[in-house]
Amino acid sequence: MGLNEKPLSTLHEKASYDLDDFEVPTGREEAWRFTPLSRLRGLHDGKAEVTGQVLVQVHTPAGVTAEWVGREDPRIGQAYVPADRVSAQAYNAFEKALVVTVPKESVPAEPIRVEVRGGGVDGASYGHIVVKVEALAEALVVIEHQGSAIYADNIEFVVGDGASLKVVTLQDWADDAVHVSHHHAQLARDATFRGFTVTLGGDLVRLSPSVSYTGPGGDADLSGVYFADAGQHLEHRLLVDHSHPNCKSNVDYRGALQGEDAHTVWIGDVIIRVAAEGTDTYELNRNLILTDGARADSVPNLEILTGEVAGAGHASTSGRLDDEHIFYLQARGIPFDEARRLVIRGFLGQLIEKIQIDELRERVLSAVEAELAR
């Protein structure tokens, strides 16, 4: 498939499976102006040698199928068309794709777990995953990333009529890892999607979660927490494309930064098309800057093409710790360092509590504590 004739929007103008339809980014483009291209290790310009070692393992409960298939499988690319050059490169370079299917009306007793582990940064690797939840089924998927890697991938979540899918992705990479990923959820009539992203590790991580609807009544909630240390670049670029009536979306991302040249980027794009009457949407990003030398960029965007909406809004804040909160705790005998840790944990913990798996929730909270102790 070549370049789409009809632009997605003025915010996202291209979508194509063909790598040649995308020019090599220079850093002057709106989509790339925050990303340090020199740290992508060749993922954006085709210079990365495809010699990396990334192992993907899947653990499925009874009733759920997992298959490794080729690019010619009709389920690949069914929900998502690459929207930038790195995504198109990943689509054209992966060897086998993982397809996970949750059958109609089923509710697996355990989470579906996907483990992505890198074996070094000597070369690049590419991947593709499809999670298909058929009509009236329910599922929980956990995707964990660890190790060292130069890795780009696309993940498609296809949620059928009346189905429900919850996804937790954890970026717990080693300090030298580079990861560029697109996560796209396609919601059918009355489908529900809950996506939670945790980004802690890696030298450069750029994630692009997106949502589209193929029928009315869809409901999407995208939440995330991230913590950047000195020198880290953590970037999240979200897109919610409302194209059908009476659908909902809610976005809430929170981050903390500490250390020299710690840098986070959050871009939140919501499009409400002419046909999407009755849309109810809100997006929020909040950042805590804990030390000098750290920088948080936050850009919420709304593109509304119809006046018949139930609600549409956005908010973004970046700032220091509230001195009054610290003083309140210190006045009750809590030492400064402990008071600081409690405030930050409370700030991020409100979202972390959404993780329904006790073991994973405690693991994330422990990782945040470890970041604060640095």
UniProtKB/TrEMBL annotation:
A GO biological-process term: iron-sulfur cluster assembly
Pfam families linked: SUFBD_core (PF01458)
InterPro entries hit by this protein: Fe-S_cluster_assembly_SufBD, SUF_FeS_clus_asmbl_SufBD_core, SUF_FeS_clus_asmbl_SufBD_sf, SUF_FeS_clus_asmbl_SufD
Recorded superkingdom: Bacteria
Residues covered by the SUF system FeS cluster assembly SufBD core domain: 123-347
Similarity annotation: Belongs to the iron-sulfur cluster assembly SufBD family.
Alphabetized PANTHER family for the sequence: PROTEIN ABCI7, CHLOROPLASTIC
Protein name: Fe-S cluster assembly protein SufD
Organism field: Nonomuraea cavernae
